[in-house]
Design brief:
Length: 215
């Protein structure tokens, strides 16, 4: 039995991008606001609270840093940047830590891609071709994944992106978490999502009985 207010799950993001409106006002790693943020000296785009936040972000930033530098002073849109991060993760063979659910262990590679629905959706296919156009500039000579792979990644991104909000519910970024996708999208919500920086917390907003063993 979960009681009202209980934490159902907490998750750090698999990928996250600070909203372009917040760039320079918040840390690209932890999303906290700060006065004297330190800029990455190589790309001159991302900014951090301190060396610790920079170090924390380096595994993710080292791949994108030369890409950002390549197109500077242009800065990619949030959706393009999120896609860039996913493409780079996949190139590196990083699908995140597997999370166990009813069906078994799963990570980003097991997410449903919804490719078929996207192929039939003109707005989505146009959005994807714009993203791919910019991705090609960002990645330069290093090859883009094949079209069907990009469509798959894009589908996973569209379905699983969360808008990260601050305490006043103002959007400050976008992120993909590996565990919340396991939650059912219920018409009658029994849980609420909040954020501390980039960390997601899901809490029960009413008492939730344990599923009966007969089911
Ligand atoms: Zn920070
Ligand atoms: Zn950089």
């Amino acid at each position: 039995m979960k009681r009202k207010g209980d934490i159902l799950l907490q998750s750090e993001p698999f990928v996250h991008v600070l909203s372009h409106k917040q760039r320079g006002r918040r840390c690209d790693s932890c999303f906290k606001s700060g006065e004297n943020l330190k800029r990455c000296t190589m790309c001159k785009v991302v900014r951090y609270c301190n060396a610790m936040c920079q170090k924390e972000d380096w595994t993710s930033h080292k791949g994108e840093c030369p890409c950002l530098k390549r197109v500077f002073p242009d800065v990619p849109l949030d959706s393009v940047w999120l896609m860039l991060k996913l493409v780079l993760k996949q190139k590196a063979g990083d699908n995140g830590q597997s999370i166990k659910n009813d069906i078994g262990w799963r990570n980003f590679s097991d997410f449903k891609s919804h490719s078929e629905e996207i192929k039939c959706d003109q707005n989505r296919t146009e959005q994807l071709s714009k993203i791919v156009f910019t991705l090609r500039k960002l990645l330069g000579d290093s090859s883009l994944p094949p079209g069907d792979k990009l469509m798959e990644t894009f589908g996973k991104m569209v379905i699983n992106s969360f808008t990260v909000c601050d305490g006043e519910l103002q959007p400050i970024g976008v992120a993909i978490y590996l565990s919340p996708s396991l939650l059912d999208h219920s018409c009658e919500p029994n849980a609420v999502v909040t954020f501390q920086g980039t960390k997601l917390t899901v809490r029960a907003i009413k008492d939730i009985p344990d599923p009966s063993p007969a089911n």
